User: Fold this.
Amino acid sequence: MTFKMEFAMTRVHWFGRDWGSAICDPQVHDCTPVGKPCLHCDEPIAADDSGVIISCMVPGKNPREPVHHECFFRMTQGGVAHVEERCSCYVKEGGVKDIDPEGMTVRQAAKAAYMAQLMKEAKKQTIH
Assistant:
């Protein structure tokens, strides 16, 4: 007996302004979901925000949830200490345990991680 399996290619939809990511394909651009809460930080999406609509399998959540693009970065790439390679992933003895800066909201910490990555990339460009 032979089974044929088919897999659907799911494309991540995005909203807002193009932030230079490969994810920003014009064919999958959606309207900005103003007022809906971000899946990561729970702050409402504003009219001038950019981000992605991701598939969600969290009980009580919609199957497609918006996420600010900085929050999506934080969800997938880690916090400031991870981007700066100061966490226990990189420093085995004495690595930082709290990878987000103290006193920041979840959204502020996501923006800080995204900015840390931009600074890291800019530094690499000036070295080469």
